[in-house]
Amino acid sequence: MEKQTTGIHHITAIVGHPQENVDFYAGVLGLRLVKQTINFDDPGTYHLYFGNEGGRPGSIITFFPWPNAYRGRIGDGQVGVTTYVVPPGALKFWQNRLTQFEISYQMAKRFDETYLQFDDPHGLHLEIIEREQGDINSWTFGEVTKEVAIKGFGGAVLYSVRPDETAATLVDVMGLEVVGTEGDYTRFKATGDIGNIIDVKMTTGIKGTMGVGTVHHIAWRAKDNTDHLEWQEHAMHHGQYVTDVKDRNYFNAIYFRESGEILFEIATDPPGFAHDESYETMGNQLMLPSQYEHLRNQLEMSLIPIEVRSLD
């Protein structure tokens, strides 16, 4: 049974104060807060989801905000850099916007592409790349119009404890294709139009430690529940220690830690983020899974209030 993922479903990271998180990803980057919920395994913590106008898989970055938690260290065994993709011609807008908000950046080239590289307020490494592929994001916020808006993920850069083994997992398990090597990096491509380019750093460095400012896991796409169960069997057949299926309300998930020590998830595209609130009101209020609804008053009192606000 050979399988190919279309690319990234979502990326989940650990950050600090939730309002700082909302201000940056909504206020500065112009993404839509598509879901306010809680960490199902730690219900006293938010789980915030940001993406394009519809919360399409391949556009979703999610966060566990832990104010005053210890700082992590980006390194081997983690997603090192999260890449966003914008329409051709939009990079100058983003240079100006980062300057406007006094966010330091640098320009870099990799595989003949120009990247705008910067960090979020809690230390996550981000970059923006122009590409034709991917649907225009019609969500507008502040001065971020659809002509320049982030379409979703361009992909990610993986830092591995064992790069050769991570590369083999991407090809043999996830079905990505090797498309090039340049310097320290090997590039892999999935079949989708966004979230499809993965660069693996083939040299090792310092080991990453989990905490604020680091990516917790990267999730890959499965098209539906039947496909998801096939992925579970497929990954186990290739020697991965895969979890049982977890119901995350907006998708089903399985997890395994590949040999390079990066935590992989495979998540279903459906049911998506509008099944428990309308498309128009997604992200406006705290949504709880049924098992935590009886704790709503307690949770709403303990969680730090957040609001999406224009910073322009």
From TrEMBL:
Query: Which residues are in the VOC domain?
Result: 7-131, 152-269
Q: Which InterPro entries match?
A: Extradiol_RC_dioxygenase, Glyas_Bleomycin-R_OHBP_Dase, Glyas_Fos-R_dOase_dom, VOC_core
Q: Which domain of life is it from?
A: Bacteria
Keyword Oxidoreductase among UniProt keywords: yes
A GO MF label: dioxygenase activity
List keywords of the entry alphabetically.
Answer: Dioxygenase, Oxidoreductase
Concerning SUPFAM superfamilies, the annotation shows:
Glyoxalase/Bleomycin resistance protein/Dihydroxybiphenyl dioxygenase
Classification via Pfam families: Glyoxalase
List, alphabetically, the PANTHER family matched: RING-CLEAVING DIOXYGENASE MHQE-RELATED (PTHR36110)
Q: Under what name is this protein listed? A: Ring-cleaving dioxygenase
